[in-house]
Amino acid sequence: MIASFIHLIRLLAAWLLSYLFLCILINETIFEPLDRDPGGYFAIVALLLGTWIASGVFSHIRRVRLIAGALNSTTLSNRQRRQIEIPFEAGEAFDLIDAAIRELPGAEIVDSARDSLQVRAKVTRIDPYGGRNQSSYFPLDHFGARRNQILATVTPNGDDAGSVTLICEPEGAAWTDLFLVDHGTNLENAEAIARAITRRVAERRRGEAARVRQTATEKELTVAKLNLLHAQVEPHFLYNTLASAQVLTRSDPARADEMLGNLIQYLRHSLPRTEDAPSTIGEELERAQAYLDILKIRMGPRLQLQVDIPDALRGVLFPTMMLQTLVENAIKHGLEPKPGGGTVWILARQVDTAVAVTVADDGRGFTAEGGGTGVGLRNVRERLRLAYGSVASFSIVANFPSGVAATITVPNTVQAGVHHA
Fold first, then answer.
1. Most exposed residue of 12, 123, 143, 384, measured as fewest CB within 10 angstroms of its CB?
2. Can you tell me the distance from the alpha carbon of 269 to that of 294, in angstroms, rounded to the nearest whole number?
3. Cβ(280)–Cβ(322) under 8 Å?
4. Exposed, middle or buried, 152 (CB in 10 Å: 0-12/13-18/19+)?
5. Distance CA 417, CA 421 (A)
6. What is the pTM of this model?
7. Other CB atoms closer than 10 Å to residue 352's CB: what's the count?
8. What pLDDT, in 10s, does the model give residues 137-188?
9. What pLDDT, on the 0 to 100 scale, is given for residue 154?
């Protein structure tokens, strides 16, 4: 109530003082030379003027209360200032405030400069009481500005935040505020822009949350698919190995013990891994060597192995079971069908920022008799795509003079804490 009373007194005082000055000027120039007393006329006009002013101020106060829910010097002012923090970088904050101002009802001219992070706009002052433009209920409004104006300036606040200074005011000069009210139109504009920014930020956050949920879902599906593909490439020689060991326990217990030791080593490296425990080239090589040592006992001199993997590359992260898949293919489709067997080579080389791991054999090569279903190699390609995207690759070519060479290329990423002598 005090703020409303002060606001009314200020406007009445400004108008009545101006009117008093005008009365003195008219009296001295017109009525005094005619020796007449116009006091009664001046009093009637003052009463009418005061009534007009009071009615306009009452309408202004009433509407501000409806908009803001509170009356104070800030809400009653014709000129509104807001400081709005936006949790986006300055360019995004500018786009957001620019869109909010352009969608403001009555926006006529919007001049935005993205380089200087400023937006200026002219907004038609729509009569809140039913008519267009100026209010017919307060005739003195016809002497004031017919439009409001908006100035928004974005100030960068770090790399991921922007601060918006918003000014909503009448188009007229500041001194006109002594005589005129805006019926809360600039307060309404400031509140509307603030609401629009809040809504757009909330929409952005909801969209980000939805994308995070979608990404999490896609990640879970990818992990499930990788697990399925992993399950498809698990070796199927467990029963054959146990059966061979059972036979050897009768004829050659030492070799049976060696085979079981290799099987234990192989199974230790084949336990399921969590997503946070990636494998390395060194660990995958230990699994493959355990597998090949088992087969060397079964195949005898028909199987030879040559490994050339530098110690510096053994700590490089490598997909679980992929090296095993290539080794199994080399044995099943290359050396086992070939009379006399052959050799398996396991090699690793640094290639720029990547590491190429190759499994080669001198078996039957690309022949109808030596080919398989191709499921294992399709799984290798699919797992590489899911895990690395386009930064990994797989190729398979004929080896000279016979056999096949399969190469997996992955980024050279070393597991933290892994060191090899």
1. 143
2. 14
3. no
4. buried
5. 13
6. 0.51
7. 8
8. 555 555 556 789 999 999 998 778 889 999 999 988 888 888 888 888 899 9
9. 93
